[in-house]
Amino acid sequence: MIDSYGRIIDYMRISITDRCNLRCRYCMPDPIPPAGGQELLTYEEIEQVCQAAAKEGVQKLKITGGEPLVRAGCSELVGRFKQIPGIRQVTMTTNGILLRQYLPQLLKNGLDAVNISLDTRNPKVYEAITGTDGFTRVWESICQAQDSGCRVKINCVLLKGFNDKEWRQMAALAREMPVDVRFIEMMPIGYGKRYGTVSNEWLLAALKEEFPGLETDPNRHGNGPAVYYKMPGAKGSIGFISAMHGKFCQGCNRLRLTCGGKIKPCLCFADSVDLAPVLRKPDLDDRAKETQIRALLGQAAAAKPRQHRFEDAAQVTETGQMAQIGG
Question: Are 227 and 246 spatial neighbours (Cβ–Cβ below 8 Å)?
Fold first, then answer.
């Protein structure tokens, strides 16, 4: 697919649930009404969407949530995705709490890489941010994934007043382990509006002072917008996803499928294209459904805006929580 601005859309993020086993302050500190059984797409319906997307040129899929591993059958879904002609990469974003339990099956079914959320190396700060005493489980998951040979990225969001002084310790992980540590600027979505953004511009300058010799890493590390740097002698790299201070919309290559069946062209805006009515229309056979889904995917790609407007709060129309949208 090619959108209205000539960007090739070959990547889709797929939320399979809006539930989570953490209560992170900037995402879901309070329970939100989960999608009911009739609203949540079945795995069969999700697979239908992905098959249609593959025929429209999507080659890479990322399974997200909420927390995807709280939904039964997630490991098997990876294998089903890997069997779709045209899909050459399946990855996952997880908070890591359940990853150690499911990693062997995920890898057996073909998972190519995993992104693990970790905002601190301090167990007490971890509990203050997530509401859960789960640091040890996440750390064990990171170590197990890295030891298995799976490509690992660690996603870190700095919150003012909580972990914004811990960037040195988090960055040092890239020196100690063959992982990518990515600093993600807080976006004004849902509960994220309550927290100020720690600028990646400032952080990069601080890291260059802390780690002399830090230089641009020209290697491509994945499908997203992160810009990477390398420390001399480091086993891994440091990445920056700078939605607020380094707008990267010109290279956006993705669509998002919510767990309820809506395709979102951009996180910033409430606009979406609903696939559920087609998926659940009883008088359509599979071929007719695929034709209509492909048309709707093209419609969503054509609706992608030139750029987000997170820097102007009045222009942000998305009102859902990140867990509901698909992280």
Answer: yes
